Amino acid sequence: MIKTLQQVSTIAEMRQHISEAKRAGQRIGIVPTMGYLHEGHLSLVKAAREKCDLVVMSIFVNPLQFGPNEDFEQYPRNMERDRELASSAGVDLLFTPTVSEMYPQPILTNISVANVTNPLCGRSRPGHFDGVSTVVMKLFQIVQPDFAFFGQKDAQQVAVVTQMAYDLSVPVQVIPCPIIREADGLAMSSRNVYLSAEERTQALVLSRSLREAAAWIRDGASPAEVRTRIINMISEMPLASIDYVEILSYPELSTLEQFKDGEAFIVALAVRFGKTRLIDNLIETV
Ligand SMILES: Nc1ncnc2c1ncn2[C@@H]1O[C@H](COP(=O)(O)OP(=O)(O)OP(=O)(O)O)[C@@H](O)[C@H]1O
Ligand SMILES: CC(C)(CO)[C@@H](O)C(=O)[O-]
Ligand code: BAL
C-alpha cells in the first residue's frame, strides 16, 4: 500500500505499481493534467480521493494536442512545486513521462472521435482533440483506471473522452467535475499566468457574461439572443478578441434553436486577451 507520493517516469515502472494495486483489489483513479497545478486540478484530486484507493495524477505537456503556432514550448512548467501540491492534495502516484517515453518515433496511431469534435475548440484548434484522445487512451492503457476525473472547464474534452471510452469499451467511468473559479469569477487555468493585469481585469467579462446569460435564459431569451448579447458584452472590452461564442446541446454539441425543458445545453466561450486564449462555459438544464 502506497502511503506517500511516489514519482514515476517510465511506463514499465507505472505498470508494476498498477499490477500491485490491482492484485490488492484497489480502485484506481486517474487525474490527467499538463501540470502547473492550481485549485482546479486539486479539486479533481479531492474527488478522486473520495472514490478511489490509489490516486494517480499524470503531468505531461502533450505535444500531439498543440498546433504548430500554439504555446507548446512556452506552456508553464514547474515540477518541483507541482510535486509538493500533488503530495499535499493526496496523490499517491505522480506519472511524469518524457515525450520520448510516451511516443515511439514516429507515432503511427491516432484516435479520432467524430461529431463532438466538430464545433468549438475542435474547429479553432484543428487536430487538438485527436491529440487529446490519443494521449488519454494511452494513459488509460497504462494506468487501467476504474475512474478518470476531468474538469468541466474543458467541457468539450469531457464529451470527447466520454464518447471515446464508450465507443472503445474502455472499462473506465469518466467523472466530470465542476469549474473552480477565483474569488472574482475568473475560471482557474494554468494559462492565466500569461495575462497582464489589465488583460486579467478585462477577462472577468467571461464569467460575468455567463452569469448574465443564465439570468437572460431564465427570463426566456432564445439561444440566438443570448449569443448576441454575450458577443456585445465581450466586444466592449478593447483587449478581447472573440474566437467563438456558441450555445449548443450538451453533451452532443449539436445546434440548438430553442431551449427545451429538461434538455441540457452549454454556453461556451473562447476569447483571446493579447496572446492568451481563455475558455469558459456554463452547462445547465432549463
Ligand atoms: N478551473 C478548473 N476547474 C476544474 N477543473 C479544471 C480547471 N482548470 C483545469 N481543470 C481540469 O484539469 C485537468 C487538466 O487541465 P490542464 O492541465 O490543461 O489545466 P488548465 O488549467 O486547463 O490549463 P490550460 O487551460 O491553461 O491548458 C482537465 O481535466 C481540466 O478540465
Ligand atoms: C487531458 C489532458 C491532460 C490530455 O493531455 C489535457 O488535455 C488537459 O490538461 O486537459
Ligand atoms: N486543458 C486543455 C489543454 C489544452 O489547452 O491543450
Written account of the structure:
There is one protein chain. With 286 residues, the chain is of the alpha/beta class. The chain has two domains: 6-177, HUPs (Rossmann fold); 190-280, Pantoate-beta-alanine ligase, C-terminal domain (Pantoate--beta-alanine Ligase, Chain: A,domain 2). It has helices at residues 11-23, 39-51, 79-89, 99-102, 120-124, 128-143, 155-167, 197-218, 223-235; strands spanning 6-8, 28-33, 54-59, 93-95, 147-151, 173-177, 240-249, 264-273, 276-285. Helix 7 (155-167) links the parallel strand 5 (147-151) and strand 6 (173-177). It binds adenosine-5'-triphosphate, pantoate and beta-alanine (BAL). Pantoate binds at residues 32-34, 62, 65, 132, 135-136, 154, 157.
Query: How widely separated are the two ends?
Result: 46 Å
Q: N-to-C SSE series?
A: EHEHEHEHHHEHEHHEEE
What share of the residues lie within helices?
25-40%
Query: What's the CATH architecture of the largest domain?
Result: 3-Layer(aba) Sandwich
Cα gyration radius (Å): 19 Å
Q: What is the C-level CATH assignment of the largest domain?
A: Alpha Beta
Number of strand segments? 9
Please name the CATH topology of the largest domain: Rossmann fold
List the bound ligands: adenosine-5'-triphosphate, pantoate, beta-alanine
Number of helices, counting only DSSP H or I runs of 4 residues or more: 9
* Spatial order of the strands forming the largest sheet: 1-4-3-2-5-6
Catalytic activity: (R)-pantoate + beta-alanine + ATP = (R)-pantothenate + AMP + diphosphate + H(+)
Keywords: ATP-binding, Cytoplasm, Ligase, Nucleotide-binding, Pantothenate biosynthesis
Subcellular location: Cytoplasm
Pathway: Cofactor biosynthesis; (R)-pantothenate biosynthesis; (R)-pantothenate from (R)-pantoate and beta-alanine: step 1/1
